UniProtKB/TrEMBL annotation:
The lineage of its organism: Bacteria, Bacillati, Cyanobacteriota, Cyanophyceae, Nodosilineales. This is DUF4336 domain-containing protein. InterPro entries: RibonucZ/Hydroxyglut_hydro. It comes from the Bacteria.
């Protein structure tokens, strides 16, 4: 592995088992959030990261922000359905994309149009998210007031809706960090990741272009997405209670 970056290299010169093993880092078991929606918490210091698994209406699986899993978790994943679609949500969350495509050649690699050039530095993109995912009943929301980098995905559930965010909202609560990255807690607090749901100080600096526009967009999302049951973020605890109100609170913190 010397001379390579294992985080963006699929190890094409190694066996699949060797290449996959090089990507596997500590992670949680696959845990159900609601019927048809699961998540995995991975540890990539200093920040924990979240992978989401969604069962499509045809029974196949969509993976958002893939994390390389150990063998037991891979068996669990495959017991849920056939991995068919992989969303690489932005340029940051492409670490394990290529190795997933190598393991599951049938995966359709999907990325937002703005992220496609960066994702294709590590793996070929088969489809543009905002053009292709609506055929599966998934709504792709483009954030206002944020530098173009990612989308927010509205997924239909049997009991309502889920929203998948990536890096424009965090939820790194004290309890979550104590459980999954206790050594990183104070560094993340120093970097501006507060003990609350919202955009971080670093996110405001590097991603936000118009605070008022972003605040209004979050409020509109909270008002218009009916029966919101889950909010997932790439870094932090998923929200499964009072989701619309939590989204309004995140917006109001930008006042």
């Amino acid at each position: 592995m010397r001379g390579r970056n294992p985080f963006i290299d699929n190890g094409c010169g190694d066996s699949l088992a060797e290449a996959w093993a090089a990507h596997v880092l500590p992670h949680s078991p696959i845990t159900e959030l609601v019927s048809g929606l699961w998540h995995v918490i991975g540890v990539l210091r200093p920040t924990p990261r979240e992978m989401v698994i969604y069962r499509l209406p045809d029974g196949c699986l969509l993976i958002h922000s893939a994390i390389a899993l150990d063998e037991a978790s891979l068996k669990h994943l495959e017991s849920l359905g056939t991995p068919t679609i992989m969303i690489v949500p932005n340029r940051i969350h492409r670490i394990d994309a290529a190795i997933y495509k190598r393991r599951y050649p049938q995966l359709a690699v999907v990325a937002p149009a703005v992220a496609k050039p960066y994702v294709e530095e590590v793996v070929a993109v088969d489809a543009i998210a905002e053009e292709w995912l609506p055929d599966y009943g998934i709504i792709c929301h483009t954030p206002n007031g944020i530098r173009p980098q990612e989308l927010v995905y509205e997924l239909p559930l049997t009991t309502g809706k889920a929203l998948l965010f990536t890096d424009i909202l965090f939820n790194l609560t004290d309890a979550y960090l104590e459980a999954h990255a206790p050594r990183s807690k104070w560094l993340l607090r120093w970097l501006g990741a507060g003990n609350q749901f919202g955009i971080t100080a670093l996110g405001q600096r590097f991603f936000m272009t118009d605070k008022a526009a972003y605040r209004q967009w979050l409020q509109t999302l909270a008002d218009t997405v009916s029966s919101l049951r889950v909010i997932s973020v790439a870094h932090g605890a998923p929200i499964t209670k009072d989701c619309s109100e939590q989204l309004r609170s995140a917006a109001n913190r930008l006042a």
